Amino acid sequence: SGCVRGNTTRANVKRKATSAPAGKKPTAKQQKLVPLKEEKKERAGGWLQEKLKQRRTEKKEMKFNKKRLRFVSDTEKIKQGSEGVLYWMSRDHRVQGEHTPSSKTIRHLVCLNSFLVLLKLQDVIDMPISGSSLLNVRLKAQNFPHFFLSSPFFTSQPVDWDKTLVSLQVDRTVGEPEWATPGTKGGIAMLESFIDVRLKLFDTKRNDPNADALSHLSPWIRFGHLSAQRVALQVQHSGKKAGQSVSSFIEELVVRRELTDNFCFYNKKYDSASEWAQKTLEVHAEDNRPYLYTRQQLEEAKTHDKLWNAAQYQMVSEGKMHGFLRMYWAKKILEWTSSPKEALSIALYLNDRYELDGQDPNGFVGCMWSICGIHDQGWRERAVFGKIRYMNYKGCTRKFDVAQFERKYCPKKL
Ligand SMILES: Cc1cc2nc3c(=O)[nH]c(=O)nc-3n(C[C@H](O)[C@H](O)[C@H](O)COP(=O)(O)OP(=O)(O)OC[C@H]3O[C@@H](n4cnc5c(N)ncnc54)[C@H](O)[C@@H]3O)c2cc1C
What we know:
Strand content: under 5%
Shape: globular
CATH topology of one domain: DNA Cyclobutane Dipyrimidine Photolyase, subunit A, domain 3
Mean pLDDT: 78
Largest sheet: 3 strands, antiparallel
CATH architecture of one domain: Orthogonal Bundle
Order of helices and strands: HHEEEHHHHHHHHHHHHHH
Strand order of the largest sheet: 1-3-2
Distance between the termini: 14 Å
Helix content: 40-55%
Low-confidence stretches: 1-13, 18-40, 99-132
Bound molecules: flavin-adenine dinucleotide
C-alpha cells in the first residue's frame, strides 16, 4: 500500500483511538460526537451512573418472575464449612443486571431470606439452532416478555485489581487501548454517551465506518462488565426519541447476539460450513487467486488494498474494527489465501488476538458467516468465492467515503 510501516504485532504500544469512541477516562460527555444543546440542559454527564446508583440503594421490592428460576444442581443444601461457590463468568454470565440469557452452565449463588440457593435464572432464548434460524430467534425474542424485566442489583466486595492483573499470565505484546475504560463504570459511561449522542444515528449510519454511530459496547458486553439485558432495557427506556434506531439496535444486541450464542452452544457442527457452502468452496478450491498473502503480511497490513489495510490498522491500533468493515475484511482473507480453511484460521487468529470483543461466539459466527456462508444463502457464483456472498472495494465506495477512512487509518506508527 505504500503507507504501512513497521510490524503490527510489535507490542506494548498503547492502542489509541483516533476515532475516539471515548476519551482516556471517558465521561459520558467526553464521548459525545456532537453535543446536543437541549440534552445538555436536560441532564448532566454521569446521569446514568447516578440513576443506577440510586436504584441500587433504594430498598424497593423488586418484581421478580419466579418462572425464571431453575435449579441447576441437585445439591440444594450447602455443605457445612463451605466458604464459597465458584462463579465462572463469561460474557453475559454475570450476576449484576442479568437474567443470564443463553447461559447454560452458570450457577448463581443467591441469598434469599438467609437460605442459600443454587439456581440458574431461566434462559431467555434457549433453543437449538441449526441452519438459518434467524427468523426463529427474532420471533422468540419478540415474544419473550421475560427478557425485558428489570433485574436484580447485587453489591460486590472490593478487589485488588492491580495485584490481580500482575498475577495474570497473558500475552502482553498487544498494546492496551486507551479509549476503553474497563469495568462496569466505563461501560455505563459508554452506554450513556450512546443514548445521548449516537443512538439517533444508529438506524441510518451504522454501516458507515466514518460515522460514529455504533454503541461501542461490545468489549464490555464481551467481558460481562455490562449486561446485554441492562443495555436493552436502558436503551428502550431512555431512547424513546431515537425512533427506528431503538429497534435496529435491539435487532443487533438481542437477535443477532442470541443467534450466535445459541448456534455455538447447541450446534454440534458449529465449526463446519453448510453442505452447499462446502461444495461450492471445494469446486473453487483450485481457482486462480490474483493475490496471495501470508498471515504475517496480513497481520502487518501489507496488502495492495488500502481499505483493507486501514481496517486492519484500526483493529490493531484501537482494538475494535468497525462492524461493516469486519465483513469486508474477512471476505478478502478468503480471496487472498490459499484455502478457505487457511482463511478461517487466519481470520479467527487476527480477530481473537486484536479485537477487544474477540474470542466470543459473535466473532466465531462473524468469521464463519463471511467465509463459510453460515446463516446465509447462496449467491451468484464467481471465482474463489463460489456461491459465498461476495464483497468488493467498489461496493464499499458506493456505501461510504472510502478515501476518508483510508486517510484516517493509513498505518503510521506501526
Ligand atoms: C468477521 C466478523 C468478526 C466479528 N467479530 C466479533 C467479535 O469478535 N466479537 C463481537 O462481539 N462481535 C463480532 N462481530 C459482530 C459485530 O461486528 C460486532 O459485534 C460489532 O461491530 C461490535 O461493535 P458495537 O458494540 O459498537 O456494535 P453495535 O452495532 O452497537 O451492536 C451492539 C451489540 O450487538 C451485538 N452485535 C452487533 N452486531 C452483531 C453481529 N453481527 N452478530 C452478533 N452480535 C452482534 C454485539 O453484542 C454488539 O456489542 C464480528 C462480525 C464479523 C462479520
